[in-house]
Amino acid sequence: MSAKDLANYLESRVAMLGMSKSETARRADISRQTWYRFLSGDVNDAKLSTMIRLADALETTPMQLLRLYFEGTASPDTVIDLGHLQAGNEHYASKFLARTVGAKPNRVSST
C-alpha cells in the first residue's frame, strides 16, 4: 500500500485544478480531518465510498486513486489502462464498481 504516493497525487491534483484544500474537502463531502489524513499519507483503512467522492471532487477516476493506494506512483495526469486485465476479470471489476456506485454492470464477453 502506498498512502504516501496517494497523498502526493492528491496534492498535485488539487494544485492542477486550482482548488483550495477546504474546497476539495467540501466537494468530496468529507471532514477536513479525514482530508488532511489523506494529504499526510496517514490512511491505513480508506473507505471506498470516500475514495469515490474524492475522485469525483478531483475530476479523476476511483480506479486511479485505488491504484495509487494499493500500487503507488503515478503522475496527476496518468490515465488508467485497464488493458492489463485478463479475460474474465473485466466482468468482476465491472460488477465491483457497479455495486459500489450503484450502476448497472457492463457485460463483457471473455471471447
Automatic annotation (TrEMBL):
Domain HTH cro/C1-type, first and last residues per copy: 17-65
Molecular function (Gene Ontology), one example: DNA binding
InterPro entries, alphabetized: Cro/C1-type_HTH, Lambda_DNA-bd_dom_sf
SUPFAM superfamilies in alphabetical order: lambda repressor-like DNA-binding domains (SSF47413)
SMART domains (alphabetical): HTH_XRE
Source species, domain of life: Bacteria
Pfam family, one: HTH_26
Protein name according to UniProt: Helix-turn-helix transcriptional regulator
Upper classification of the organism: Bacteria, Pseudomonadati, Pseudomonadota, Gammaproteobacteria, Thiotrichales
